[in-house]
Automatic annotation (TrEMBL):
Ranges in a coiled coil: none
Protein name: Flavin reductase domain, FMN-binding protein
Keyword Oxidoreductase found: yes
Short name of any one Pfam family annotated for the protein: Flavin_Reduct
Gene3D superfamilies found in the cross-reference section: Electron Transport, Fmn-binding Protein, Chain A
E.C. designation(s): 1.13.12.-
PANTHER family, per the entry: FLAVIN REDUCTASE, FLAVIN-DEPENDENT MONOOXYGENASE, REDUCTASE SUBUNIT HSAB
């Protein structure tokens, strides 16, 4: 069920103020990875990750609708959500960069469906690309988890515009 409610006020909204308020919400850091049919690897940093359901096991993440990688992620059947460990801030920065090959120098293995899993991640979720919902300037991806693993360790957190290790809390 998808219900939309009318806006109460059509006033101008201050996007910078909104972004500043959002920065006060501490969030985990993920790298979403996938592999194209020709073997090309693609990945991006995302902090918009959340669990949706235990039965079936569903998770969600979102991507800007104008992102260059949108056609790939919307068209591929599978992807992996890698939850970065405390020592992987460099990977968060690398996969958020504009560099052409974001996998350069990155250690990874391949999942059962051939998707890249980043070595050293504190957890990962191999997902079937179950559904997508355009909303605002983003698309919400819902993935059905087919396999997951965890290596409990200190996590990487993003808060106030900077990376923090959970061990520092």
């Amino acid at each position: 069920m998808h219900t939309r409610f009318p806006r109460a006020d059509a006033r101008q909204f201050d996007a910078a103020h909104f972004r500043q308020a959002l920065s006060q919400f501490a969030t985990g850091v993920t790298v979403i990875t996938t592999r194209l049919a020709d073997g090309t690897l693609l990945g991006l940093t995302a902090s918009s990750f959340n669990s949706v359901s235990l039965d079936p096991p569903l998770v969600l993440w979102s991507l800007g609708s104008k992102a260059n990688s949108m056609p790939v992620f919307s068209g591929n059947s599978h992807y992996v959500i890698n939850i970065l460990s405390a020592d992987q801030a460099h990977l968060a920065q690398q996969f958020a960069s504009k560099m052409e090959n974001r996998f350069e120098g990155v250690a990874y293995t391949l999942s059962r469906t051939g998707q890249p899993i980043l070595e050293g991640a504190s957890a990962w979720f191999e997902c079937h690309n179950r559904s997508q919902y355009p909303e605002g300037d983003h698309v919400i991806f819902v993935g059905e988890v087919e396999h997951c693993e965890a290596d409990p360790q200190a996590a990487l957190v993003f808060h106030g515009g900077r990376f923090i290790k959970t061990g520092d809390l």
